[in-house]
Amino acid sequence: MADVAGTTVLVTGAAQGMGRLYAGRAVAEGAARLILWDVDAVGLEAARAALQSAADRRRGAAGATVVEAQAVDLADGAALAAAAARVAERGVPDVLINNAGIVRGAYFWEHTRADIDATMAVNALAPMRTTLAFLPAMIAAGRPARIVTIASAAGLVSNPRMSVYAASKAAALGWSDSLRLELEQAGHRHVKVTTVCPTYVSTGMFAGARGMLMTPLMTPEHVVEVVWASMLEGRPLLLMPWTVKLAQLARGALPRPAWDFLAGRVFGIYSSMGGFTGRPGAR
Q1: Residues that are catalytic
Q2: How many domains does the chain fold into?
Q3: pTM
Q4: For residue 11, which of 5, 17, 35, 59 sits 20 to 30 Å off, Cα-Cα?
């Protein structure tokens, strides 16, 4: 897939941050239809208006990308299914970017049951439910299609104050990469899956979190650029930055006490969430 020109693109968590940047890339490449999902109705409408204006300027009103916005609470399975049905009335996405996510950033015992349910629903269940709503038709269409799921390096490397978030992202990672293999095994190679595992990105979602040794906070613009190229290429797994691969090797090779010392005292992984505040107003 050279670009997304003429395709239908759906981005979750599109009101701000990287979701809005992914949507901007779709407009810049001339997607025919762009669907934005987010729980923030006000922010979503502002994003839709700005993106539609950019699309109109780029190609002229007659041939511009049509930008649609649906306020959807991805933690609500019924609401998600209803939104997907509305999208499918005019055709299913060729590109699905499962970007939406939430984080609490607290010790496990400080979570409520509602915290746990919401985190697992948005980060782990929503990508599965959204993909399931569209995948059979994507397979049947027979044309190149892409599914991107934004997991996290937290799903690979344990970290204090991230237990529930890490669990949700580990689930997303395991599901997404298994789906890739299933599609390949079943011969549906026109639908390619890319799973992304980044460390902290400076979008505001992880405000207060500290960068680690050789692993500063990444800018959302850089992450989106690399993810977008990987998506078009059909790259199976993207770990960002390179130190995530190093951590994987060290964690697998070292005895656990040695790894804990290295992660805690040398790389600073285990203290990276100590100053976490998160995005103001995040649920």
Answers
A1: 165
A2: 1
A3: 0.94
A4: 59
